[in-house]
Amino acid sequence: MKINPTRKTSIAVVCFSNLRLQQAKDFCQINQLPLLKKKSDDYALQLLFFDDLIELFDQQLNTTISIDFIKGSLAHRQQFGGGRGQAIAKAVGLKSGVTPRILDVTAGLAGDAFVLATLGCPVTLIERSSILFCLLENAFDRASLNEKFQPILKQGFNIINHDANNYITEQLSTSDNAPDVIYIDPMYPERKKSALVKKDMQILQRLHDNDDDASELLNNALLFAKKRVVVKRPVHAETLNKKAPNTCIKSKKTRYDIYTIEKM
Ligand SMILES: C[S@@+](CC[C@H](N)C(=O)[O-])C[C@H]1O[C@@H](n2cnc3c(N)ncnc32)[C@H](O)[C@@H]1O
User: Do the beta carbons of residue 231 and residue 245 sit within 8 Å?
Assistant: First the structure.
């Protein structure tokens, strides 16, 4: 999946690793990005290839993000996040004896998907940005070497680099592999006070112009999810498509709009 050529942000790849040089060259060729040997002030975002790690550097924030399923904030949330009692778990319908199969069509940094996976759900993630997919794939590769990650892989945790609207209409309409739940977390509208937005989300906002096809995602998801569609929104935001959910679950800053699928 190529990067949107109309993007506003300048992006380059910086390769510090001989081991990854061919991978970096191929990535740059597919995505039509410049390949550098060291960081440069000319690019707002720079994807840094090291021997093991791949991370994304934001020039303006002077910070990097990468994804780590074994340690850091994701592992912390796994340990202290509140288990099946937390709002996201209730939103997807996790309860004793019910462990839904989930399609997360807006993978991003996989924070939400990983929480659901650690609670026992088989999860497939879809991400259309090749930059984010590169970070996700690298996180999977590193985690796969760790035995703590094996149960999650075994129960089903995989990533796909695709546009989710195309994926849903092409893959789910032709087979009976529909997930129980389709989970949608589109980019929030840009906040004026950027201090209110976490740094990793600010970087995501810089990477994407917008997710203006989120309404289409909801429509498609409603056609193909077996049990429910869950949309994550800021607590006071309008519903997607101005479509009223059957119910919603709120936490301090976040609202999960739940659309249940009527069985014929
Ligand atoms: C707000 S982020 C999701 C954050 C994620 N829930 C997390 O916990 O890290 C939204 C992501 O969805 C992706 N996205 C939006 N629309 C998409 C689509 N139609 N197909 C695939 N990915 C999409 C964007 O590229 C972006 O990375």
Answer: yes
Q: Which of 116, 124, 102 is nearest to 225 (CA)?
A: 102
How far is Cα 13 from Cα 190, in angstroms, rounded to an integer?
A: 26
Closest alpha carbon to 2 in 35, 23, 28, 22: 28
Place of tokens 């093991």: 52
Write the pLDDT tens digit of every residue in 56-109.
999 999 999 999 999 877 766 666 666 788 999 999 999 989 999 999 999 999
Q: Domains in the chain, ordered, with CATH?
A: 11-65 (3.40.1630), 73-260 (3.40.50.150)
pLDDT at position 208, please?
Answer: 77
How big is the chain by its Cα radius of gyration, in Å? 18
> What is the DSSP pairing of strand 157-161 with strand 181-184?
unpaired
**Residues paired with 46 in a beta bridge:** 12, 57
Cβ of 165 closer than 6 Å to ligand 1, yes or no, is yes
pLDDT digits (tens, 9 = 90+) for 191-237: 555 555 688 888 888 887 667 889 999 999 999 999 999 999 999 99
Atom in ligand 1 nearest the alpha carbon of residue 200: 9
CA of 104 to the centre of ligand 1 (A): 9
